[in-house]
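R.M. (postdoc): so does anyone remember the format we settled on? I'll just put the structure tokens first.
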């Protein structure tokens, strides 16, 4: 039985496309509702004993021009329960990760160039090592790389109790509706997230083909749905 929230996740930036993304999976439901945050200036995650304001406020500060590391450090300094938190993220000019000393074992993080990885209540450090390696080895777009990163973590042992939900959230100059995907309850949420991503890509092409059949001429921007954040 799984009772205690545990998580592994990745935040990343692709400077070549000015794209930010966050991906996360955990041993409780609806992780996408509380943990990942993105904007045109950063990607952030809050987990362990999650404080949603830390993710939201870090992104708001990045949008206001703060470095993501300065933003998180200020938020943690004002949090009397910081030792129970795990937060991480990337901005345009910095990366940051923090694992409080009271996060449940195994817990830890990695900071790389343009990405951060963190997790708690994991099978061991090999999980976040595998998340990092899978992200770096994948050469697809941000959504593909994020799902591949989660798949790497699952293959390495993942959450010590198994996963129940997963999510990806991407901010890109050209938004797609598959940039905001969630699996809120499943025995295999990361595998389901991969299936959902592939189905969403196919759906975009299908909507275009069906619209072409309905209208001989129509404004192409009608199919630019954008993304809800």
């Amino acid at each position: 039985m799984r009772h205690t929230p545990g998580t592994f996740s990745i935040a990343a930036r692709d400077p070549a496309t000015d794209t930010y993304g966050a991906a996360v999976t955990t041993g409780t439901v609806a992780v996408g509702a509380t943990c990942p945050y993105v904007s045109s200036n950063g990607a952030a995650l809050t987990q362990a004993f999650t404080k949603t304001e830390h993710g939201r406020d870090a992104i708001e500060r990045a949008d206001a021009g703060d470095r993501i590391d300065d933003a998180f450090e200020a938020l943690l300094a004002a949090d009397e329960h910081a030792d129970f938190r795990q937060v991480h993220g990337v901005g345009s000019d910095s990366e940051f990760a923090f694992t409080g000393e009271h996060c449940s074992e195994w817990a830890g993080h990695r900071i790389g160039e343009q990405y951060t990885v963190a997790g708690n209540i994991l099978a061991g450090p090999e999980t976040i090592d595998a998340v990092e390696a899978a992200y770096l080895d994948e050469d697809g777009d941000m959504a593909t790389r994020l799902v591949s990163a989660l798949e790497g973590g699952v293959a390495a042992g993942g959450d010590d109790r198994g996963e129940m939900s997963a999510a990806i959230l991407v901010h890109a100059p050209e938004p797609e509706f598959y940039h905001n995907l969630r699996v809120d309850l499943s025995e295999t949420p990361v595998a389901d997230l991969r299936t959902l991503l592939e189905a969403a890509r196919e759906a975009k092409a299908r909507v275009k083909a069906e619209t072409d059949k309905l209208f001989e001429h129509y404004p192409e921007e009608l199919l630019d749905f954008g993304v809800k954040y």
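R.M.: ...and that's the designed sequence above, right after the tokens. Also worth knowing: The chain has a mean pLDDT of 93. The radius of gyration is 17 Å.
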